[in-house]
Amino acid sequence: MRAAIRSVLVVISIAVTVFAGRSGVTLMAVNNAGGNLGIASVLPMRGALVGVAHPVVIIFGNPVADRQAVERAIDVRSAPARTGKFEWLDDNVVQWVPDRFWPAHSTVALSVGGLRTNFETGPAVVGVADIAKHTFTVSIDGVPAGTGAPTLPTPHHRPHWGEEGVLPASMGRPEFETPVGTYHVISKDRTVIMDSSSVGIPVDDPDGYRLPVDYAVRITSRGLYVHSAPWAIRSMGIENVSHGCISLSPTDAEWYFNTVNVGDPVIVQEGVPADEKEVDPVIP
Questions:
Q1: Which of 74, 98, 121 is at the close of a domain?
Q2: How many helices (H) and strands (E) does the chain have?
Q3: CA distance linking residue 115 with residue 32, whole number of Å
Q4: What is the pLDDT of residues 84-139, one digit of tens each?
């Protein structure tokens, strides 16, 4: 605890200088101008390939007694300037989330509290779940997926067939609504066991379940996933029937699992049902 108290007196300055990176992209070198905040480690890990929304996660060696003081002591600077926010994941873990994504295809070098690391960003794979439209739309570097390589799964007779980047999906039904917000992928598992008791629903309840789920892309610590749901294929693109997760067909889920990186953004929005959308205004 003493180390945590002393740590609030030291300022970490993260100053970002822009250089020419590979293929003309930005290389961001981050230099430390402070001392030691009792930091145990910084994530992403050295050499990791991550998505463009990956936060900088700082893990302290001891619980932090005064979070606000520590946040004030961490000065994050960048050029061009970026704003961001702190989120505490545990009593000794804080992450700084930039309001704007890191540049894609870049190298980010960090030195925080004497701990040096660097990580790579891959393509910007952005997934947008539209609750009202029952879709999950994926773009890669700003271009709808399927426009070029890598292509979307082979199209078949299903809702939204032929729409660039659009995968039919099913989100949470009314009593288990998928929470609206902007998330980032925190892990990927080829198969996980999902157990309803972890969210307060007994397995033997009519709404209970315990089953293996494939191509599970996790976006919250509380268990919100984008995953394969073969049992819900008939509802995808038509209605929301899940317990809150974003459900995709096995083929679509496998494609997304193999395309997205940990740290890539997933945006959940309400949207407007297609049959309620007003006619686009005529611009004179």
A1: 121
A2: 3, 20
A3: 9
A4: 899 999 999 999 888 889 889 988 776 665 566 778 899 999 999 999 999 999 99
In a shared domain, residues 54 and 23:
yes
- Structural domain of 7: 2-121
Say which of 54, 134, 184, 245 is annotated catalytic: 245
As a whole number of angstroms, the distance between CA 231 and CA 7 comes to: 52
- The pLDDT tens digits for 140-163 are 999 999 765 556 665 555 667 768
Closest C-alpha to 160, from 172, 173, 169, 148: 169
Structure tokens at 106: 């870049």
Is residue 245 part of the annotated active site? The answer reads: yes
Asked if 211 and 203 count as a contact pair (C-beta separation under 8 A), the reply is: no
Asked whether residue 282 is domain-assigned, the answer is no
Residue 248 lies in a domain: yes
Catalytic residue (choose from 105, 160, 227, 243):
227
Residue 278 included in any domain? no
